[in-house]
Histidine--tRNA ligase
Amino acid sequence: MSKAIQITAIKGMNDILPPESARWEWLESIVRRVMAEYAYRNVRTPVMESTQLFTRGLGEVTDIVEKEMYSFQDRQDKHGDADHLSLRPENTAGLVRAVAEHNLLYDGGKRLYYMGPMFRRERPQRGRYRQFHQIGAEALGFRGPEVDAELILLAVALWRELGIQNWRLELNSLGQPDERREHRAALIAYLEAHADQLDEDARRRLHSNPLRILDTKNPAMQALVEGAPQLIDYLGDASRRHFEAVQAILAANGVEWRINPRLVRGLDYYNLTVFEFITESLGAQGTICGGGRYDYLIEQIGGKPAPAVGWALGVERVLELLKEEGVHILDPVPDAYAVIPDAAALPQAMRLLNQLRALGVAVQMHAGTAEGMGSMKGQFKKADGSGARFALIFGADELAVGEVTVKALRDGAGAQTRQSLAEPSVWADILKSTA
């Protein structure tokens, strides 16, 4: 019989295992708490959507749609028709689709957030994977600059709660469509006049998406883009007032920023305020959170016109940044470990353990083998390795009088007492790690 070929995970799609998974749970718990403090409520959308949602919402000439989406044709129905589907490369379009489809804005604006996996066919590297995870906050139905500022302050509050300090905030305004059209014409004329300096990617984008040329990472084009017309110079009075109001609120809250005229973001749906949080600790993948206002997206995908603003952060990048900054996250350990010398004690022991768990005590039970429960020495070694603060010893002598021995494994190691099996509620609190 031939040896079976081992099946491994798809390149760029990673397993998240203990103890690393504890870091994810810790991050997610803080996100939920901070979102609740700002009155944002959770939304969960499918990981697969109609391809048309992304081509219409993100823009057909964006890198995501052109190069990176996992798209395929579904099976044909009885009429021979088949839908074109894509794994979501980001979640704003899906969230907006859900809001429009279920008419969530019928009674006013909504503050929402999401967490989950996204998919892009990229070359895997540190902080950039084919299955990656985002956390996003979106405020829909609100037109004022105060909501732009609120979302930025929400991200700042999250960095503070996580213990992240090495970040900077960059702002820009993309204005409104008519202002962008005027700037676009001037930008194309400028770039055409310097066509000999454009690289292949810039020449391809010159007439389809010239704004993205300003975000080039090509060192040879930096001087060219520095001299290009700046969109901020084409803003009308209303756009300027909106942008200035956002900055005034940030200043009043002690948040520092710098204006980056080249900040355009990678998706077509943005208008007015755009922003990014950037760190120097992660090299090329330095953007840990980005977003902005997208007042026309809901209408673009078939909903009733409504303003909106939001951001998304990369979970993998934030976790990498936490490591770089030395933020220590403890792996959760049980409060107690049950040492069971004889399998005959299992019914009584497991009854007590379930009673303790109901009282909020985390207990790990020793599991035996076909040969028996194992030696006491071996069980105590596993108890110590578990990180538990106490061992619960279900010896024959203890059980004969309806008791269990509680032995300290950390503070006051070796000290032990006997406690009643019949009244765990009286002594359970001594086991809790928070006690």
Q: What stands out?
A: The chain has two domains: 20-175+235-324, 336-430. The CA atoms of residues 270 and 294 lie 4 Å apart. The chain has 15 helices and 16 strands. The chain has a mean pLDDT of 89.
